[in-house]
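G., the chain you wanted modeled:
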Amino acid sequence: MHDPILAHRWAHVFLTQLRSLGVERVCIAPGSRSTVLAIQAARIFDEATMVHFDERGLAFFALGAAKASRAPTCIITTSGTAVANVLPAVVEAHQAHVPLIVISADRPPELRDRGSNQTIDQNNIFGAHVSWYIDIPCATPDIPLDVVRDWAAQAWDRSGGYQPVHVNWMFREPFLPEDGDIEVVSSEATIERVSHRCISSTSNISALLSTIEGSRRGVCVVGELENQTETEHVRSCVGSLGWVTLADSLSNLRCDTRLPTLVSYGDLALLEELPAALKPDTVLFFGGRIVSKRISALLKASSDTRVVAISSRASNINPLCGISERFVTEYGGLSARISSLQNNQEQSFVKSFVSRGEAVASALESELSPKTSSSLSEPSVLRAVARLAPAEHVLMLGNSMPIRDFDMFAAPRKDAPYVVANRGASGIDGVVATAFGASYGLRQACTLVVGDLSLLHDLNSLSFAREVAHSVTIVVINNNGGGIFSLLPVARQPSFERYFGTPHGVSFDNFARSFGISYSKPATFGEFERAYRDAVGQKGTSLIEVVTDRTSNAELHRLIQTRIKMVLS
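Predicted structure as tokens:
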């Protein structure tokens, strides 16, 4: 016989165990089948809950919170298409190594595959994009509560601090006892903390150190790093090495002024092919994915260059198949070992490589300096945000052009904000929700730079503006369509505008006002700087709409690259 009190007790034990292990917050989408989970989450997590009407936006919000805090975040949904709407965020979490615990409510076995309303096949709905899946049955006295606790511990363990997992949970009606009293659900005594079982890999670090000592023309390539601690450790590693360093924006070393051998404009410094004297003999690849294709090209297989990957976890990031060795180790411990090594680098190699970055910096200053032009362009906006964003902000960069422009044009500064982006699958969906989630997870104000199509994808996530305590400043670059396509060869096709440019003719002023968000639309570079400074200086959410022209933007990018090629050659 079905006992709703037992269902609540199971949920209470499960969620209490997760909280004791380190889950800090739960994101809940309203629904009937998930009633038991929602009620118990509210009791256990209290203020550490976020409720949102759209599962897709909610999931990306949870992704942002987990990405920023690196603490697993729970998502609770009802059954049916509600679960399917979580898939894009789960895909991104899987690709970007972000810990999410998705708990979906489901129909009991007797209602499955019978045409029952709001019933779909939820078994393994996320497929290979989760590291673990379990189908939890309806509560029954035949299964001890210790087993329920262990399911929670498994969900935590299999998430491992870097992967999404899926818990699909069956519930029978009624979800509440007739008198509605669920106070009889106790805390089931003290929940013992279950140790997180971490699977670690050890490597022959002596072999790595020997490779380092044998290099004379070494280059460090630093991809995406998972948190600020990793950034500090890798900064220490490359600083001790004294090697030429090319850093991705998501390494959070891209704008660092403390590394004398950092080539700040690494992507543009590689516009022209490297002369023989600047070809490295060894490339050390730290971290994960890289935005720049030109920097990624250094990881290609070559008879002259040894490419060695160093990562904190055993993930296979090797898109150009050039990595010959991979070492899995803790960056902190490696930093201490590297600091004792002798620097054997050819200083002429280091100085010549760094001077390429300095030449690029000079060219950019002449092309994009406000003193040169007062016009508002996409490169100048990203360059301005990189310079003006408060150090205490988290800076979220949208995909397609915003993160590429930041990667190319952002100038170094000593107090750069922490940069995040959804580069696991690099989609343009869910970016707004992720930014609000990052602000929530880090308990910091946030600046989001996003494209118009990406904002249109995620308009309903502007409703998070009412829920997030810290200020969020949204800079939307509205070029009336898919700006990145104008930079590709397909732009020359006669069918380009209809099938790739996809103009929409939308302005965002009314959307901002509908959600109670302050709005501005600067027309010049000076107006943009003032609007941005005003926005980050006030409480609440602000939206700054920058209108640009796709054709002019493509021409400006080509002009800048032509000038840099001339300087480098």
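The longest strand covers residues 100-106.

Shout if anything looks off.
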